[in-house]
Amino acid sequence: MALATSGGMGMGFWIIYIAVIFGFMYFIAIRPQKKEKKKQQELLSSIAIGDSVLTTSGFYGVIIDMTDDTVIVEFGNNKNCRIPMQKAAIVQVEKPEV
């Protein structure tokens, strides 16, 4: 009878142990990713025509046109260098000084 009682306590310990591990993983891995994704979504929703942007490939440019999920970015002083790209490729935005 004593063995059955100690086995139940051992099982409860393992359930709590696993719950603590999953809680730790949530706060270490999942929660920061969600915060970063939310921050990126806010950044993408704040962009407008005329903003200076930095792309994931390291290019700086100015947004000259936008649609729902794409932007046309002008790079450098050459007015002929206009490239359409996805909004998700933008990692940093600088608003023009008014």
Account of the 3D structure:
This protein has 98 residues and is an alpha+beta fold. The chain has two domains: 1-45; 48-94, SH3 type barrels. Helices cover 45% and strands 28% of the residues. The protein is built from one helix and five strands. The protein has one helix at residues 2-45, and strands at residues 52-55, 60-66, 70-75, 82-86, 90-94. Strands 4-3-2-1-5 form a five-stranded antiparallel beta sheet, with helices on one face. It starts with a helix and ends with a strand.
Task: Spell out the key features of this protein.
about 100 residues, alpha+beta, SH3 type barrels, 5-stranded antiparallel β-sheet, 1 helix, 5 strands, rod-shaped
In terms of topology, how is this protein built?
Elements: H1 2-45, E1 52-55, E2 60-66, E3 70-75, E4 82-86, E5 90-94
Antiparallel strand pairs: 1-2, 1-5, 2-3, 3-4
Transmembrane segments: 12-30
Membrane topology: Single-pass membrane protein
Main location: membrane
Largest sheet: 5 strands, antiparallel
SS field, number of helical segments? 1
Please identify, by name, the CATH architecture of the largest domain: Roll
Give the overall form: rod-shaped
What is the string of SSEs from the N terminus onward? Answer: HEEEEE
The overall pLDDT average reads 87
Total number of domains: 2
Task: State the separation between the terminal residues, measured CA to CA.
Answer: 81 Å
Sequence stretches where pLDDT stays below 50 over 5 or more residues: none
- Assembly type of the chains comes to single chain
Estimated helix fraction: 40-55%
Q: Would you count the extended β strands for me? A: 5
Strand content: 25-35%
